[in-house]
Write the structure tokens for this entry.
Amino acid sequence: MARLCVNVDHVATVRQARRAREPDPVEAAKICEKSGAAGITIHLREDRRHIQHSDLERLRETVTTFLNLEMAATDEMVRIALEQRPDQVTLVPENREEITTEGGLDAIGQEAAIRRVVERLQEAGIPVSLFVDPTREQIEASARTGARLVELHTGRYCNAPEGPERDQELKSLVVESARAQELGLIVNAGHGLHYDNVVPVAAIGGMNELNIGHTIISRAIMVGLELAVREMIDLIDEGNSLSPL
Ligand code: PXP
């Protein structure tokens, strides 16, 4: 049964736009957990453009469900993961110029390096997931690294126009999910999932976890904006009938 891990990076993106204290991804994570999310996902990027090291420390103290840390397979990040001990590490590729994670990890080209990172983390008791494109070659290479899990990149499925092209992308997800499970891997999926395209992915047999961020934070702004404006108007109205001192 697929469960939801909410990616709260975009809460930190808004905060970092003003280098302010709000909105706080830790508070957002609490609301997600209270609302039934099975876990919280964050990506601590090398350039720290949204989530900060202190967010990771605070989330490690406050998340009571499951903390999934997305990170690049670098020595710095391995050291941080070993210190902070998230419940799961998802290895992702990282390019400085990208707007968000673009392709999947190259588990074929970087098999030996990934295997070393997987070993260090899993020997320390932290299960590792590899974010890969849903292709036979990537899934087989992922299994060879010893990683316990893969996260299937759903970007191509999400970007495909509805119709035969999207159906073909969904088929790749179904087929590669089955292959991964036959090879003993637990299967997660994510990237670009929306309210209108998530159902078929949740329906894939054996799907363990869906990591979803952008669309949930976007929708939260829209469904929460009315209350936020009303509360501010109430306070301004209160001020209108008072003297300031
Ligand atoms: N999974 C991975 C590996 C990601 O890098 C991201 C984006 O940070 C997500 C899932 C969530 O993607 P989205 O924000 O499009 O839901």
User: Anything to note?
Assistant: The domain at 3-241 is CATH 3.20.20.70 (TIM Barrel). The first helix runs from residue 9 to 18. The chain has a mean pLDDT of 96.
